[in-house]
Write a structure and sequence with these properties.
It is a single chain. This protein has three domains: 230 residues, Phosphoenolpyruvate-binding domains (TIM Barrel, Alpha-Beta Barrel), CATH 3.20.20.60; 77 residues, PK beta-barrel domain-like (M1 Pyruvate Kinase, Domain 3, Beta Barrel); 128 residues, Pyruvate Kinase, Chain: A, domain 1 (3-Layer(aba) Sandwich). 38% of the residues lie in helices and 23% in strands. It contains 18 helices and 21 strands. The strands form four sheets. It has an eight-stranded parallel β-barrel with strand order 1-2-3-12-13-14-15-16, surrounded by seven helices. 45% of the residues are buried.
Length: 483
């Protein structure tokens, strides 16, 4: 199944999408990556979903990426004697470590590390930012606050602390168990929640030990500030606009999204734009115009992927949500403005031989009748560099002998992945394999030409050093090959 679009679609699985028929329908409708949200469901439930994905992969003969999203540290207040209380603007309210049920004047906040990090004037946001409090004074076990924006606070509501870096580990004990489980069953990507600093990502990489690529979710102001360092140690990025929009003024989120997408493209690392993209489709078969525009904006920016959360996991129209996102993507990518926008925002990196090779492939594809760019890749680097060029004229086919590499590349812009079987140790055989993949995928015929990119010697990561324009017909390949 050759997708006729470049941006990828990530679909979250959940109660509404846990059986073979629904997950297969999501894949057919356009899902390229399936997300397992470790915040919900048991390991047995997630394993069952994973097994279904792999069965669909075998049935369709196409690699599918699986992303396990770790919950991360959740900060919540305690309980109330009346299960809640109304806070009014201007009143004082106290958070402390006393586990006694709270009232309209105080409640437990069972996180002593928060009190250690507070400063006078620090803001505490409750219930996704609906309630806003400012710290007046504090100690090692309390914080007296003034209510700036009132509302109803109830049992175990989430608390955000946007103004300071909290001395909280990004991986909880639950996350460590979930990470090990996810790696054991064979997921391709691990998403880390509430990353604050680069060291948080390094810990996850150490635990994954190469079994899965690590993707950092940017949803804290501190992560935005330390983004360059976080990007350097991450394999990919997710711009999680939900909590980011809670902890920052909402008007700051769009320019942050645009800047982070640009930086990820420059680094040749995949970036997902996520949260509330088609949220109305949880209950409606048709999205709002604003939601469609939001999805389109991410695609115009050149994001590698757009993501559905509750829309596909718990909504009433999971398949329709994927189909809608697929339709929006095809419409945007068919627009001449899309090509001009990507061209104007193109990243120019000319530091290595590999950079020059992929740039040359793009230029040749623009000026000649080329049907596809075929990349032989071991680690995925060659394909990622080719993807960075954002070549809209022709598809990118990534050929690799490694199943894991093929699956991970399913997240990256414009790449269709093919697993090669048998030994490819000569460039002539690489050209033969590339031509066969181009013909079988339907992007080229016997009379067409393709570009083949590879590294010699083969099976050595990071040696991209050869480019050839080759015919697709095998008889012509052998007739014209200089070997």
């Amino acid at each position: 199944m050759q997708r006729r679009r470049n941006v990828k679609i990530v679909a979250t699985l959940g109660p509404a999408s846990s059986d073979y028929e629904t997950i297969h329908a999501l894949f057919t409708a356009g899902a390229d990556v399936f997300r397992l949200n470790m915040s919900h469901g048991t390991h047995d439930e997630q394993r069952a979903r994973y097994d279904i994905i792999r069965k669909i992969e075998r049935d369709t003969g196409r690699p599918i990426a699986v992303l396990a999203d770790l919950q991360g540290p959740k900060i919540r207040c305690g309980t109330f004697a009346a299960h809640g209380a109304d806070l009014e603007e201007g009143q004082t309210f106290r958070f402390d470590l006393d586990e006694t049920p709270g009232d309209g004047h105080r409640v437990c906040l069972p996180h002593p590390e928060i009190f250690e990090a507070l400063e006078k004037g620090t803001h505490l946001l409750v219930n996704d930012g609906k309630i806003r409090l400012k710290v007046l004074d504090f100690g090692k076990d309390y914080a007296n606050c003034e209510v700036e924006v009132g509302g109803t606070i109830s049992d175990r509501k989430g608390v955000n602390v946007p103004d300071v870096v909290l001395p909280i580990a990004a991986l909880t004990e639950k996350d460590r168990r979930d990470l090990e489980f996810a790696c054991e069953i064979g997921v391709d990507w691990l998403a880390m929640s509430f990353v604050q600093r680069a060291a948080d990502v390094s810990e996850a990489r150490r635990l994954a030990n190469g079994r899965a690529a690590v993707l950092s979710k940017i949803e804290k102001p501190s992560a935005v500030k330390d983004f360059d360092a976080i990007l350097a140690v991450s394999d990919g990025i997710m711009i999680a606009r939900g909590d980011l929009g809670v902890e920052l003024p909402v008007q700051n989120v769009p320019p942050i999204q645009k800047r982070l997408v640009h930086l990820c493209r420059a680094a040749a690392k995949p970036v997902i734009v996520a949260t509330q993209m088609l949220e109305s489709m949880i209950e409606s078969p048709v999205p709002t115009r604003a939601e469609v525009s939001d999805v389109a904006t991410a695609i115009y920016e050149g994001a590698d992927a757009v993501m559905l959360s509750a829309e596909s996991a718990a909504g009433n129209y999971p398949v329709e949500a994927v189909a809608t996102m697929d339709a929006v993507a095809k419409s945007v990518e068919g627009d001449a403005t899309y090509r001009r926008v990507l061209e104007n925002s193109r990243i120019f990196e000319r530091r290595t031989v590999a950079d020059g090779i992929v740039s040359a492939a793009r230029e040749i594809s623009m000026t000649t009748d080329i049907k596809a760019i075929c990349c032989f890749t071991q680690s995925g680097t060659t394909a990622l560099l080719t993807s960075r060029e954002r070549t809209t004229q022709v598809p990118i086919l990534a050929l690799t002998p490694l199943e894991g590499t093929a699956r991970r590349l399913c997240l990256s812009w414009g790449i269709s992945c093919y697993i090669t079987f048998g030994v490819v140790d000569r460039f002539k055989m690489a050209v033969v394999s590339a031509a066969r993949a181009a013909r079988e995928s339907g992007v080229a015929g016997d009379d067409d030409q393709i570009i083949v990119i590879a590294g010699v010697p083969f099976n050595v990561p990071g040696t991209t050093n050869i480019l050839r324009v080759a015919p697709c017909a095998e008889r012509l390949i052998f007739a014209t090959d200089p070997e």
